[in-house]
Design goal:
Blueprint: H1 2-58, H2 64-130
Length: 131
Amino acid sequence: MINTFTSEIAALRKELQEQAKRSQKELQDQAERSQKELQDAVKRSQAEQQAADERLQKLSAEHSANLRAAQTDLKSQIESQTRDLTARMEQRDDALSQELRQLAAKIEEKKVARDELAQLLQDLALRLAKS
């Protein structure tokens, strides 16, 4: 009977550990995907900036006033997009961090519940052994 309880406790412990590993892996994968998306967005923004600079260099001097206005507009758009993307990614990172903290709290709750169950099972085993 004690062996059954012990094996059940071990199985529960193993299941909780596996669940924690899977959850941690999922969150890590999400964070990596978010980081990759941010890097890709930055690369796109940099590529857009570089393309804009190359176009400006090819234009003639007579259009320099228009070029300055266009360059200012493009830079503002790129900066705005970069700020927006950065803000969205920070929000996503914050949300993922919150999810991770919540998951850690749930795991801790499960660990406490598992420990309490183990203690109850040990107490029950002692009572059974005494009777």
